[in-house]
Amino acid sequence: MESLLEKITKMKTLIILRHGKAEQHSFDLDDYDRGLTSRGVKNSEQMGKFILKKQGMPDYILSSAAKRTYQTAVLAAKGMGFPKNEIVEDENLYLVPERNLLAALAELPTDVNFCVLVGHNPGMTALVNYFGVKLDNLPTASAVCFTFEMDTWENIATEKAEYQWIKLAREL
Predict the structure, then answer these.
(1) What is the pTM of this model?
(2) 66 pLDDT exceeds 70?
(3) Which CATH superfamily is domain 10-171 in?
(4) What is the mean pLDDT of residues 75-100?
(5) Are 146 and 165 in contact (CB under 8 A)?
(6) Alpha helices in 19-156 (DSSP H)
(7) Residue 32, Cβ neighbours under 10 Å: how many?
(8) pLDDT band at 6 (very low <50, low <70, confident <90, very high)
(9) What's the Cα-to-Cα distance from 44 to each of 12, 58, 76, 81, 157, rounded to whole Å?
């Protein structure tokens, strides 16, 4: 019989966080370089505070390297008290489908038990749907939490996902 401690150490927590509200598209600015609006800044830090209160401090924050996602990660980290210099930026997470997000998650170190993934739509909504929560659109600066009973991230799969909660930025 598995002990409670053994079961807890096999639990992985993933929060899927879409970047905050971004500046409008323009011909003068590449999409990759779009920053957050004032609402995006406010909501991102508020969501970080909510995550800390609801779920605790993550072990790892993984973010697309695009300006708006990295800004979201930094502001959410500030709200959580997570060190900015420990945020992991990945240029390969810019506007990718869920299979690429899953591949990135599968590469996480085994000792990471709680990860916040910061990215873009449509991939983030697709990932939420892949894990069994049907959404048409994950709004900006909104988060969805799943837990997984598994030893390593390389075993992440839809059948292991257990939905915990969703928090929309407009509810903050």
Answers:
(1) 0.93
(2) yes
(3) Phosphoglycerate mutase-like (3.40.50.1240)
(4) 97
(5) no
(6) 38-55, 67-80, 98-106, 123-130
(7) 14
(8) low
(9) 23, 16, 5, 13, 28
